[in-house]
Amino acid sequence: MNRDASLHQAMTETQPWDVVIIGGGATGLGAAVDAASRGYRTLLLEQADFAKATSSRSTKLAHGGVRYLQQGNIALVLEALKERGRMLRNAPHLVRRQSFVIPAYAQWEVPFYGIGLKTYDALSGKSSFGKSRMLGAAAVRSMLPTIASDKLAGGVEYFDGQFDDARYSLALAQTLESLGGVAINYAKMIRLLKTNGIVSGVAVRDEETVSDFEVQARVVINATGVFTDEVRALDEPQAPPMLTVSQGSHFVLPKSFLPGTHALMVPKTADGRVLFAIPWHGAVVVGTTDEGVPSASLEPRAMEIETAFLSHHVELYFGRKPLDSEVLSLWSGLRPLVRKQGTSSTAALSREHTVLVSPSKLVSVTGGKWTTYRRMGEDAVNIAAKAAGLPERPSTTQELRLHGWSEAAALASDAEHELAVYGSEQAALDALAASSPGLAALLHPRLPYRLAEVAWAARYEMARTVEDVLARRTRALFLDARAAIDASPAVAACLASELGRDEAWQQSQLVAFRKLAAGYVYNS
């Protein structure tokens, strides 16, 4: 992908696009890939970087949703299980099967959870990731060797999916381009254009040059996640809000807190939440929380109530609170939840999605969850195409292989390797690293990434900032914030060389990144 070429194409296009999509997270990218795969001329605009907000801050689960099964939402679980299977088949370099263990501290819990997860197995059908089984206490201790074992009665093992959310988003952007679509990051929609009261395009600001231009469209899809209501207000200032915004925060801890390959799942904490501790890129992600917040932001910060919750539950299940230095990274994400009358708890709100068409034919798609992104995109494009009178064409994304798919990745989908996320491009990246001793060097002794990945991100993945590289092209900031800060000067220098930037640009990038990264460093 080349941002300059994509921007030039958008700015010089004289014919209306069939579909313009606002928002470069999972939902927007999923809709864009769906539209382009049908042959619609498609342009996607993202105000920051792809997956900058919610879509890079998930709990990294491609899952049916055991908690939704508990709530009796069978339809959502069925849909998500089907989509989970498609994610694995279409992007095996980014999605893998993961074993989860539920520890039971009362004898009745073993058959209770065991029967429920057998139902989960049955619902998954041919898309099963593995059969669940009931475990004795000794087996649980073997699989989760650091788990608090006082009164441990046994447990249940089941299987779900894990993935790299930011890299998956990037694969969608690359797939969009391969289908003839155009995606541009740092291109902010600043105004809706209307003709005779109908939305007919958008005004866009190129955030790099701070220059504005207009694009025409037969239909505009608002896929801006937690910012959906802000865009709707540009169309209908008096429209009632659709969303309640919820925040989920996570600790990243050293592997020593949960050695081995199995993840921990607590289906119901004392306050009714679900808790996970999951191996991820050589560390352990612990989360998540569920707290309502009054407004959306691109950089949410964990609240004290959330860090207290996480710290307490780490102590409860692993025997001790983590030291500040052992919290390698602390990060938060926001969820767009469709409002429901009479519901005060965000944890109780549905994760189902909604597609709404305004009187001016602005199409808004929101709600949902990462695992069902493809279905959300399909539904949004179906409705948008009808609203705009586009030729009726079926979706083709159910079996559409994403950028980077390879036969080798499909056969080794259970493997976790740092370069696996590059899929079919791994050999080319290795060749780039071998071309220069400097490019083969690690960014930091505690990080698995090489300088070659910085150059690759700038050349082929539309990375424009130090943050883009350290937060989303690699996952350094999310894995070890202090190490990412230490690595930032080398990243800035490499990016400056690749993008033709000067020393002043490097220094401004370092100031901005260090300020942002300080929010990922935990201080209790």
Class by SSE composition: alpha+beta
- The count of DSSP E runs of length 2 or more, i.e. the number of strands, is 18
Query: Radius of gyration over alpha carbons?
Result: 23 Å
The assigned CATH architecture of the largest domain is 2-Layer Sandwich
Q: Shape, please?
A: globular
Please state the average pLDDT score: 93
Please mark out the parts with pLDDT under 50 across 5 or more consecutive residues, or reply none.
342-350
Q: What is the CATH first-level class name of the largest domain?
A: Alpha Beta
Number of helices: 17
Largest sheet: 10 strands, mixed
- CATH topology name of the largest domain, in short, is D-Amino Acid Oxidase, Chain A, domain 2
Q: Compute the number of structural domains.
A: 3
Strand coverage percent: 15-25%
**What is the CA–CA distance across the termini?**
41 Å
| Residues in helices, as a percent range | 25-40%
- The CATH superfamily of the largest domain is D-Amino Acid Oxidase, subunit A, domain 2
Structure description:
The chain folds into three domains: 169 residues, 3-Layer(bba) Sandwich (FAD/NAD(P)-binding domain), CATH 3.50.50; 172 residues, D-Amino Acid Oxidase, subunit A, domain 2 (D-Amino Acid Oxidase, Chain A, domain 2), CATH 3.30.9.10; 101 residues, Alpha-glycerophosphate oxidase, cap domain (Helicase, Ruva Protein, domain 3, Orthogonal Bundle). Helix 2 crosses helix 10 and helix 16 runs antiparallel to helix 17. The strands form two sheets. Strands 3, 4, 5, 6, 11, 12, 13, 14, 15 and 16 form a ten-stranded mixed beta sheet that branches. Helix content is 36%, strand content 23%. The protein is α+β, with helices and mostly antiparallel strands and 524 residues long. The chain has 17 helices and 18 strands.
